[in-house]
Specification:
The chain has a two-stranded parallel ribbon with strand order 1-2. By secondary structure, the chain is of the alpha+beta class. The chain is elongated and about 65 Å long. It is built from two helices and two strands, in the order ααββ.
């Protein structure tokens, strides 16, 4: 819920070009991006709103695959 607040921050909304008179009623799309080692999802602009969080309006999550460095386990 704290993260959803950033999508309602007045300074951020002004940077996004929301009119001063519409700031109180504007909800912008917000996406949580998190590492997911079981995912094969690659981050793209079009995939940011694919997985909605049902409890929130215009709020999404997406797990992305991160590169993994495997170290030699032999001693």
């Amino acid at each position: 819920r704290q993260l959803s607040g950033y999508g309602r921050d007045k300074k951020i909304l002004k940077l996004l070009g929301v009119d001063e008179e519409n700031i109180g009623s504007t909800v912008v799309n917000s996406t949580i991006i998190y590492p997911d080692f079981d995912s094969d999802h690659v981050l793209t602009d079009s995939g940011l709103s694919t997985y909605p969080i049902k409890q929130f309006t215009k709020f999404y999550k997406v797990g992305i695959s991160l590169p993994v460095i495997y170290e030699n386990q032999e001693n």
